[in-house]
Write a structure and sequence with these properties.
Strand order of the largest sheet: 1-2
Radius of gyration: 21 Å
Number of strands: 2
Shape: flat
InterPro entries: WH-like_DNA-bd_sf (IPR036388), WH_DNA-bd_sf (IPR036390)
Protein name: MarR family transcriptional regulator
Largest sheet: 2 strands, antiparallel
Distance between the termini: 53 Å
Order of helices and strands: EEHH
Helix content: 55-70%
Length: 85
């Protein structure tokens, strides 16, 4: 049994939707439960405020990294245009 299935998009005949199966939904629920347990363990070890500060800093770093990656991809696209030099 698969975790996802393809279904035609009723709003766009050209598109295909990727939808979770019953098994996929159970796997997602299990993953959420596992992540919740891990976060609770870390918050207990670091303290609620310390863990919240850690998560906030991690989100800022991840956002910065995405921005850097996005900006560098845009620069590569711009430099690859004919006549741009």
């Amino acid at each position: 049994m698969r975790s996802v299935e393809r279904k035609p998009d009723p709003g766009d005949r050209r598109a295909t939707l990727i939808c979770p199966t019953e098994r996929g939904l159970l796997q997602m629920e299990a993953a959420v439960s596992i992540m919740r347990t891990i976060e609770e363990r870390h918050a207990k070890a670091a303290g609620q405020q310390g863990y919240a500060a850690f998560k906030a800093a991690l989100h800022r770093v991840a956002d910065l990294q995405r921005k850097i990656q996005h900006d560098s991809q845009g620069a590569q696209t711009r430099s690859a245009r004919p006549g741009d030099q």
